[in-house]
Amino acid sequence: MSPVRAVVLDIEGTTGSSSHVRDVLFPYARKRFAGWFATHRGEPSWTELMEEMRTYTGDPRLDESGAVAALTAWSDQDVKAPPLKRIQGRIWAEGYARSTLTGHVYDDVPAALSRWRQAGVDRYVYSSGSAAAQRDWFAHSGHGDLSGLLDGYFDLSGAGGKKDPQSYRAISRAIGVPAPETVFFSDVGEELDAATAAGWRAVAVRRPGDPRGPRVAGHPTVSALDDIRLHRSTRREEEAPT
Questions:
Q1: Distance from C-alpha of 165 to C-alpha of 192, rounded to nearest angstrom
Q2: pLDDT tens string 54-77
């Protein structure tokens, strides 16, 4: 692969197990929506979330019980709603702090992150979960604290939807890396399509046993990050005429 300055990684199905999110994290937060509101009632975090819920639902009179009902429905339907992602992240953070939760990371990921860091390649995460939840996932992984191997996190609130090319352009501006020198890894074809539409390079990741099959149409596909070797351009390469 030609010189690369940054990689951007999806989480679910790419660097971590989708089933861990669906079968562990989602139910953990869902059972605690009402309790979180009761515990934090009147605090700035509660007020902020209620305002966000009212804006997102378009209901300025939405009360706490209505918010819990909406969040529960969104969780059951896996709606990528920013207020849902925000409260999930806060509930998960409390679980990580109590050591009752652990973020799932595939065995090949820590070595890949270390290898890319040594090669001078910047490493970012872009997921639908909140940036705070992403940090907690990697800081409390089954492989220990991996947060030192990552340079930043992007979510729906900060970058936009993952199937929108404009979101990838926003990330390019934020990290200061030209689109052709950025590689995106994801298991979702529509996300990879959006990244390439924004000028990024894209590699599909389909883990063994994925019910969708071993390949993603239209994109080079790997089953792990073991064989991905990236190198950053040298000064001579950067200054060479095109």
A1: 10
A2: 999 999 999 999 999 999 999 999
Asked if the model's pLDDT at residue 130 lies above 50, the reply is: yes
Assigned token pair, 21: 């999110």
What radius of gyration, in Å, describes the C-alpha atoms of the chain?
19
- pLDDT tier for residue 3 given thresholds of 50, 70 and 90: confident
Q: Which among 94, 89, 97, 75 is positioned nearest to 133, based on CA atoms?
A: 89
Tokens found for residue 49: 């979330």
State the CATH number of the domain containing residue 91: 1.10.720.60
The CATH number for 195's domain is: 3.40.50.1000
The strand pairing partners of 79, in sequence order, are none
Number of domains composing the chain: 2
Instruction: Tokens for 12, please give them.
Output: 């679910």
Reference 16, options 154, 137, 126, 121; nearest CA is: 137
Rounded Cα distance between 184 and 203, Å, is 6
Q: Which H or E element spans position 168?
A: helix 165-175
Tokens standing for 181? Answer: 């020198």
The boundaries of the domain holding residue 75 are 21-97
**Tens-digit pLDDT profile for residues 167-183:** 999 999 999 999 999 99
13 Rama sector, left if φ>0, alpha if ψ -120 to 50, beta otherwise: left
Backbone angles phi, psi at 150, to 5 degrees: -120, 145
Residue 171 CA: distances (Å) to CA of 29, 48, 112, 226, 233: 28, 25, 21, 25, 20
Residues 64 and 124 in one domain: no
Sheet-wide strand order for 122-126? 152-154, 122-126, 6-9, 182-186, 201-205, 221-222
